[in-house]
Amino acid sequence: MTLEGSSTSVPSGTTGFELFQDKKVVAQRVNGELKDLAHKLSAGDKVEAVLIDSPEGLSILRHSTAHVLAQAVQKINPDARLGIGPPITDGFYYDFDVADSFTPESLKALEKEMDRIIRSGQRFVRRVVSDSEAAKELAAEPNKLELISLKSSENLA
User: pTM for this structure?
Assistant: First the structure.
């Protein structure tokens, strides 16, 4: 395999988590394609680290942070329904459908829960599923189902 331009040898099936020990590495580019750190490498792969302070790394960080926020909101408010939560130029946002507006106190509770989630060492691994599988997993999320339906090439009826 070629790592950062130098030839190196690692067992086939080695993941980015195993290859990169630097906590600044948030993803890997394998043969020119962005992959998460759980992606298993093969002989002949060309691998580059994606650092957190690179434009792609910042986008990944923001996207992951949006997921952490969504997880925290649903932990504290199980009736909250998810909207969209994309990374943007200077951060991210997330739309939620909640009965009561967020307050300064609830935002502090969310920040505390997000900190707990982050400290738990949860790993983020990209999963690719069919539209119908996504619809089954997100059956309780009407806003997400609408997004899946709008983007779907499958007949989900």
Answer: 0.83
Segments in 41-103 forming alpha helices (H): 55-76
| Same fold for the pair 2-51 and 56-119 | no
Q: What is the pLDDT of residues 115-153, one digit of tens each?
A: 999 999 988 888 889 999 999 999 999 989 998 888 887
CATH number at 2-51? 3.10.20
pLDDT, block means (10 residues), the chain with 157 residues: 82 93 95 95 93 95 94 96 89 93 96 97 87 92 90 67
Give the sheet arrangement for strand 33-35, strand by strand.
Answer: 6-7, 2-3, 46-51, 25-30, 33-35
CATH 3.30.980.10 applies to domain 56-119: yes
Report how far residue 49's alpha carbon sits from residue 61's, in angstroms, rounded to the nearest whole number. 14
Greatest Cα pair distance, the chain, in angstroms, is 56
CA distance 97 to 116: 23
